[in-house]
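Fold it.
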Amino acid sequence: MRAYLQDVLSSYAGVFGETDAVRAFRLFIGTYDELTDRKKNLAGHITGSALVWHEPSGTVLRVYHAKLKRWIFSAGGHVDPGEMPWQASVRELREEIGVSASPCCDKDAPLPLILDAHPIPACTVKDEPAHWHYDMVYLYKVETKPSVVADPREVFRYEWARRDEVGLSNAPVDLRVHMMKFQSR
């Protein structure tokens, strides 16, 4: 996992620059031995998310996250044992919103569209303290808008939003700029 993350961070920085997120990921993977198990590392862990893009309409799928109580632009979650972050993104996409989509990246060496380090509040139900998610968001596309079957424990509602509506106010990066750089690499 560590070697994969180091390779991804180098490639990502080559496309998007040495961002705060890249620095946060490097600090995290340089500090901790356990990177994905939330029981063994209470400080944080790597997660994988999927951003779904409907190219014909230029829209992306946003979901209202049930636990965080805010709009996010992807379905995602924890990396299971033996799983890579991009594999977690595919699984979480199916589990949370019942959607399958095609990756917009090399399946053998997927580059995330976005890296995001963000705090997660404590959860008394799961007996988890506040911690950090180091999220790797992979881009997927659909030719036809799929039927969304949201898991109500994860997603309250969803919508298709234009890329220009998903700016810095509700995404950790300017999605339009990131998608242009990602597609031109």
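DSSP finds four helices and eight strands in the chain.
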